[in-house]
Amino acid sequence: MKQSEKWKRGLPYVGNKGQKAEKIIDILPAGNRLVDVFGGGGSISLTAASSGKWNEVVYNDRRRTAVDLLKALIEDSPHFDLMKYVYMDRETFDNWRDNMPDSIERTLVLTVWSFGNNLHDYLWGKKTEKEKLLVTRALFSGNTGTQLDGLYSYAKNETTISGKYTVYHKWRRNQLEQLEQLERLQRIQQLEQLERLQQLQQIEQL
Q: Would the N or C end of the chain have less CB density within 10 A of its end CB?
């Protein structure tokens, strides 16, 4: 799917059919109206609406705030500054889940920051949480006090969340390649040291 068409995948909702939506739409017969009864993240409705096979597409979901969130994002009303939601620790997530009244903002937080987009369990396990949050802070704020803060200036020209993460993954690949190069050099150095040691032992035996 082209980058410009990824909007048709809708919300990253549990059970989202975004990757199969076009195949599903191709199979369905054309007609006057398509009713997406269990709309979820909206991928079927959005793909159907862009296909031109139906005069009207009706999107529905039992969670009203999911419907309202999708509508708000499409219409940009109310406007969401998504940069405000790029960092979310477990404690804050749990507070949104357990103590905040149901709203489109709460649905956004729970959808984006839950494991499998199930709106309940925090995205990362406790073993990886600190590392992931550290990278996120470095990338978007540059205030971790670690060497990772270099990521902030590395990605500062990117204005979108996806753009910044694309830069991060490129940086990470470069780091891994450099690490592999260092490991290869270390192995070569060790082999050279072993060879010199063997030569020295041979000389001593003579």
A: C
The full DSSP string for the chain is --GGGGGGG-S--TT--TTTHHHHHHHSPPEEEEEESS-TTSHHHHHHHHHTSEEEEEE--S-HHHHHHHHHHHHT-S---GGGGS---HHHHHHHHHHSPP-HHHHHHHHHTBGGG-SSSBSS-HHHHHHHHHHHHHHHT--SSSGGGHHHHHTTT--SHHHHHHHHHHHHHHHHHHHHHHHHHHHHHHHHHHHHHHHHHHHHH-
pTM for the structure as a whole: 0.75
The Cα 161–Cα 184 span in angstroms is 35
| Dihedral class, residue 11 (left if φ above 0, else alpha if ψ from -120 to 50, else beta) | beta
Q: How far is CA 156 from the centre of its chain?
A: 18
Rounded-to-integer distance, Cα 94 and Cα 98, Å: 6
Write down the residue that tokens 């940009």 correspond to. 76
* Alpha carbons 204 and 206: distance in angstroms, whole number: 5
**Alpha-carbon distance values, 150 to 87, 145, 171, 182 (Å):** 18, 10, 10, 21
41 in Cβ contact with 10 (< 8 Å) = yes
Question: Is 13:66 a contact under the CB 8 Å cutoff?
Answer: yes
pLDDT per position as a tens digit, 26-76: 999 999 999 999 888 889 999 999 999 999 999 999 899 999 999 999 899
